[in-house]
Amino acid sequence: MTWALPTIAAVLLVFAAISGRVEGTPITAPMIFTGSGLILGANALRLIDVHAGAEVVKLLAEVTLALVLFSDAFRVNLPALRTEIALPARLLGIGLPLTIAAGFAAALVLLDLTWPEALLLAVILAPTDAALGQAVVTLPILPSRVRQGLNVESGLNDGICVPVFLIVLAIAQAEAGALGSGSAAILVTEQIGFGTLAGLLAGAIAAAILVVVARRHRIDPLWAQTIPVTAAVLAYTVAVPLGGSGFIAAFVGGLTFGAIRHRATDVHEADGAEGEAALLDGAGDLASAVTFIVFGAVLLGPALGRLSWATLGYAVVSLTAVRMIPVALSLIGTHPRVPTVAFVGWFGPRGLATIVFVILILEEPGDLPHEELLLTTAIITIALSVLAHGLSAAPLADRYATWFQRHPRDEDRPARRTSG
């Protein structure tokens, strides 16, 4: 640990210095951070030499995901989303379960895993991470329905997958004899129940303070920015001692905080609401950057040493057929054109949530009979996604936007008819 922190700080400073030049190019921030970690990690220069199961790695991953989950949930403005709900609703309600089912089937065929382990791998790789292909959700010339659909999908599927992950992990541990079936059921019930309760309380208290006191002009704008961050921390730290899931608490807390805040916010206060999220976004981005550096240094290096054709084959299938076929099936009835289906299907990057799920499993090594194979496959899939989606995001977004402009048609019209 002697040189780990100064090395990570140096990487962040170097990236800050070149960030303007990198923006808009095929080279993305996660690619640079992951690559830097790989070069500086335990299998290369050994400047970031931290054990994967170390408490500091676990803490970093948990804090990062909690902040991101709260931020994503906080930004869900349900009234504003209603005009473009068809695509994300189909991707989450139909595409996500089909993706888990397809990943489960592929794991049974390609990998030597028990059925609970195969299902666990499918769930671990189900969440998407829009940050790996930032141009896809930020390029203004792309169709709004596509941008918003992918962004909302990425923001919500992390939170949806957390309770599913907890349930399937408990099943896998019970099947392996690490947990009794009764203990597993109680554990999952407590994690979901106490996590939800802590999130509701923390989100409601923080939003009430912000709304009531701010209307009396008694909150300094700088301190107002600390409220969402504090709410995320409060939700997580209340849930965990009670036996609840801090991640579920953070997600539910963000939904609750956002729902109350959006309901109390009029048009003239919209800019203020965005300003309040600035510190939360900054903290989440910084923590995410460090997590990708640690991923490259601590997880990816050893996983490359265990790489096999089976793991590589599953990674390729997971990023293509396992994602793209369910997306195509979920869009049946909305009449999108083939390039739109292909574009939406391809951009389902795997990133932060999967990294955190991997670290959570590493925290209790040896519970699963084929744990090393499962984790190696997940890590290789993330690395391939960082590379492939990073390199393709900007050029494919430009190409799709050009095609869309040359073939004008109201892509939203079928979706509105379908939604009633």
Automatic annotation (TrEMBL):
Database matches in InterPro entries: Cation/H_exchanger_TM (IPR006153), Na+/solute_symporter_sf (IPR038770)
Pfam families in alphabetical order: Na_H_Exchanger
Localization (cell): Cell membrane
Lineage top rank: taxon: Bacteria
Transmembrane segments: 91-113, 119-142, 154-172, 192-214, 226-252, 286-305, 312-332, 338-361, 373-394
Membrane protein topology class: Multi-pass membrane protein
Keywords: Antiport, Cell membrane, Ion transport, Membrane, Transmembrane, Transmembrane helix, Transport
Domain (Cation/H+ exchanger transmembrane): residue spans on this chain: 13-397
Gene3D superfamilies in the record: 1.20.1530.20
Name listed for the protein in its UniProt record: Cation:proton antiporter
